[in-house]
Design a protein that fits this description.
The complex is a heterodimer of chains A (380) and B (233). By secondary structure, chain A is α+β, with helices and mostly antiparallel strands. In chain A, 54% of the residues lie in helices and 18% in strands. Chain A has 16 helices and 14 strands. In chain A, α10 runs parallel beside α15. Classes of the chains: A alpha+beta (380), B alpha/beta (233).
Chain lengths: 380, 233
């Protein structure tokens, strides 16, 4: 036997308590990990080198307001623009209201250059361009509905009063989002009676250096018009959706703090009970030569071990779980990915470590300060 | 003349109990020679356990000195005192106080964890101590698997494991039946007579005290007159 073995034996003396404590820490840290991952997914949307070159032009007032189609030619001719496509959110459903996924009306020949990081089959793109009612769909949505290329589908509009009947002409893979459906803006215009408007314009800039000037130029061009624009990067555009939920960072931060604080109270209570029951044994240990510092270090090691075990189960359990579930299907498309990053894991384990030390601080100090005679009196 | 192993000089101990100050020991002076077996007797509250605690270095006097092998125990820091207890004092308690999650062998090994001995040496020492108390066939037993007498013998083996200068026993037979008590007292007697261990034992039981070489009586924190003369009764 050595000291580590003695500490482990002490920790395991009440197996039910150990299991329940470890489980409560694990559950709390699992929840913390889930919240932090959700926050990260919402506030740091997936991006790529290519997506950094994409800009979104929308109505200055809100996304509910549309832009005139005549802007297209003017934006397209601006210096620094490599590609510019009409891009209108359709927001329909497939068969049932729960079958929601992103659908956009766009210009078919612009999709591949606009989303160059995604893999498109050139023949399928050609088929898409050649079919006015054709569409191209992300692989995740294809798998979700078990669609096949060539299949006909009908979307039911929830914003626009029309139901496009589409033929799937191709599948794309990769990129930052594999759930979108793109169909032809010309077909959309035909169904809606050619309103002469567009939801947004998506632009691919020539390079990163031109972006600040390009944003300023577009917004300046349409300043004081009936439809003033707000041009922003794709990332900023995505983050503006998160801001619609309110101060999500503060909300999740507050919940995480409550979780951690509750966890400290629960574990501190458990450790206090465990140490109180052992005051007589601690007195004996001191009598046979264990000094106060050694007693404290043994208690801290025991608490630290329990908290760390809970942390490993909770944080790495979350990592393992989300690596093996289809989060897109589980959340019905709310989250595309749910990556428990090393940074989040490290944060969870750090909390476990701090929890291990803080939760036993008071009982450890009490044990250190208690005199041997007082401890012996308890037992006699 | 040989210097006594334990020299207690004008030792007093006061406790504060609420607003009342209790004088547990009042200017006690006592010598205990090396190899002696002293029984401390007296009624409840006479201060015998307090005296034992101060001799063993788990309590400090309010005034006076307690010198064990030329070390004034009260002057040591907490950490130094813990080290001193580990190497110089072996404890035997009324309620055995074995660690319930450790086997007999591991309980005896416990004080050896603080020494520089290797794992094999610790184990050898612990086995030897358990053999000395007649429990070499109970090494792997947990305390709850042992009888009261066996538990107390494990506790004695633990007290002997570091080969201490002094063995202190606080009512070592208080929780045992007559047969087990007799075995434990005979064991202490053998340890004193054959291994030369200096033993200080607190007891209420005159029969138990009869196994000691010398009886010291305390009353109201003071030594009774015959104690000073060092007479056995």
């Amino acid at each position: 036997m050595n000291l580590a073995g003695f500490i482990a034996r002490n920790a395991m003396r009440n197996k039910r308590r150990v299991i329940l404590t470890t489980f409560s820490v694990a559950l709390s840290l699992f929840l913390y990990t889930v919240l932090q991952t959700a926050l990260r997914e919402m506030t740091q949307p997936a991006s790529s080198e290519d997506s950094a070159l994409r800009l979104v032009v929308r109505h200055r007032v809100s996304l509910a307001n549309v832009l005139p189609v005549k802007y297209h030619a003017r934006i397209n001719s601006m210096p620094g623009v490599r590609v510019c496509s009409k891009f209108t959110w359709f927001g329909g459903v497939y068969q049932d209201a729960k079958n929601f996924f992103p659908q956009f009306a766009c210009e078919p020949d612009k999709i591949a250059p606009l989303f160059a990081e995604a893999e498109f089959d050139p023949r399928e793109i050609a088929d898409f361009i050649g079919d006015r009612t054709g569409c191209i769909v992300g692989v995740k949505t294809m798998e979700r509905f078990r669609w096949k290329v060539g299949q006909k589908i009908t979307l039911t509009g929830t914003i626009w009063d029309c139901s496009p009947e589409l033929t799937i002409r191709g599948v794309y893979r990769g990129g930052v989002d594999e759930t979108n459906l793109f169909f032809q803006h010309a077909y959309f215009d035909e169904l809606t009676g050619d309103l002469g408007s567009v939801g947004t314009y998506w632009i691919k800039a020539l390079n990163a250096d031109v972006i600040p000037e390009l944003i300023a130029r577009i917004d300046r061009t349409f300043e004081n018009s009936d439809a003033e624009t707000k041009t922003e990067t794709e990332r900023a555009f995505q983050l503006s959706f998160v801001s619609m939920f309110g101060n999500i960072k503060m909300l999740i931060g507050s919940i995480s703090t409550v979780i951690v604080f509750t966890m400290i109270l629960v574990t501190a209570s458990t450790m206090s009970m465990a140490i109180r029951e052992r005051m007589r044994e601690i007195a004996i240990l001191k009598a046979i030569g264990f000094d106060g510092k050694r007693v404290v270090s043994m208690i801290v090691a025991e608490s630290f071990g329990l908290a760390l075990a809970g942390g490993i189960v909770g944080c790495f359990g979350a990592k393992l779980l989300f690596a093996n579930v289809d989060i897109y299907a589980l959340t019905q498309g709310f989250f595309l990915k749910f990556d428990v990053t090393p940074h989040i894991l490290a944060g969870g384990m750090l909390i476990a470590a701090v929890l291990g030390v803080t939760s036993c601080a008071i009982p450890a100090l009490t044990a250190m300060r208690a005199t041997i005679v007082a401890g012996l009196r308890e037992l006699d | 003349m040989q210097t006594p192993m334990v020299q207690i000089r004008a030792l007093s101990r006061r406790f504060q109990q609420g607003d009342v100050e209790v004088l547990a020991l009042d200017r006690v002076t006592l010598d205990i020679a090396e190899g002696d077996f002293v029984a401390l007797m007296g009624p409840s509250g006479s201060g015998k356990s307090t005296l034992l605690h101060i001799i063993a270095g788990i309590d400090r006097p309010t005034s006076g000195q307690c010198i064990v092998r030329d070390v004034d125990v009260a002057t040591l820091s907490e950490s130094a005192l813990a080290n001193w207890r580990n190497s110089h004092v072996g404890f035997v308690f009324q309620t055995f106080n074995l660690i319930p999650v450790l086997t007999a062998l591991e309980n005896v090994e416990l004080p050896l964890l603080l020494t520089g001995l290797s794992a094999a040496q610790r184990r050898a020492h612990a086995e030897a101590a358990l053999e000395l108390v007649g429990l070499s066939d109970r090494l792997r037993h947990l305390p709850r698997q042992l009888s009261g007498g066996q538990e107390q013998r494990v506790a004695i083996a633990r007290a002997l494991a570091t080969d201490p200068t002094l063995l202190v026993a606080d009512e070592p037979t208080g929780n045992l039946d007559a047969r087990a008590a007799q075995d434990v007292l005979e064991l202490l007697e053998v340890l004193n007579r054959e291994a030369g261990k200096t033993i200080v034992m607190v007891t209420h039981d005159p029969k138990a005290a009869g196994h000691a070489r010398r009886i010291v009586r305390l009353e109201k924190g003071e030594l009774s007159p015959d104690a000073a003369a060092g007479l056995a009764t």
